[in-house]
Amino acid sequence: MKSRRRQIFLAVSVPLMALGLLAVFLYARGRFAVVNRGAAGAPATSSVAATPTTTSPFTGLPCPNAKSRPLAVMLSEDDAARPLSGITKADLVVEMPVVTGLVNRLMVVYQCESPAEIGSVRSARHDFIPIAAALDSIYAHWGGSHFALEQLNQHVIDNIDALPNPADAFFRKKNIREPHNGFTSSERLLRASRTLGYRTELRDNVGYPHASAGSAQAAGTTTAEAVGQPGDLTIGYPNSFEVRFHYDPQSKQYLRFRDGRAERDKLDASQVAVATVVVMRAVSYQIEGEYNTVKIEGEGQAAFYLNGQEIRGRWQKDRATRESPLKFFDSQGREVLFQPGKIWIAVIEPDRPVTWR
Predict the structure, then answer these.
(1) Where are the chain's structural domains?
(2) Most buried of 234, 237, 260, 288, CB within 10 angstroms?
(3) pTM above 0.90, yes or no
(4) Beta-ladder partners of 347
């Protein structure tokens, strides 16, 4: 009889104890979750503050792809390739000599916009690789100099080459003469990036600081706060590569002209307009045949044009690491705050003329 009562007691008490332990566990778990979702003394809803930003680290503007790695595409600057497709959709452009005193080329960087056509795509040059790495970009090109390919074949940076053409990332147009008929698109390059297994999320601490109300003094940086009058910035690249940016105070944009003609996008005829122009002085010289080198690691003089103002200063890039940021400082050593918007970086030799009036 006692044995039976004991069996009944166990049959009832054991499940009740288990239910009790489960209740304690769930209560403790709930308390733990609330404590960790909110900051000290704050309600759980404060977790909203941890939502990833949607501001591009390159333009300082709202961007649906702000956490994604950009695509950096090599484009021709030859007159025969004009007008370029997708040029106005870039967040940042780097312009640099590829034959000293004779020919320039562009590296066009896309994060926020995804043009349906990009071109004409041209070959890689080794001087652009450290800048592409500094931007944590995926570097797209059509072959390259042997100096560039020697580095790229060692996988110093994620890249997509049109010669092996992974995932059909590039195509040629039959109605355009080579070598200016090579094209791609954001969709094709992103597909190739996935096929090649490249990381797609942008690493931390990439991009540039941008001006906002009251930020210049707080951050110990400098910016041109006043809106200037209309003006023209002329960058004395040789021959048909000479560039002029006209500042429009109404839009606060610098409109680009090359060889006396407006730089327009083939896709929609829009003119290139940027919020900040950087003129970066760097030594360039020929090293073999038609190949040159540009000293874009180390430091040198620079000038910054934003809000219709000119700021003199310096650029700096650590030679020790390829991924080191390309930074810009004023004459007092304070980092320059760019205006929110697109950026154009013009690399030019120290002895070439540049005027702002």
Answers:
(1) 2-50, 71-356
(2) 237
(3) no
(4) 280
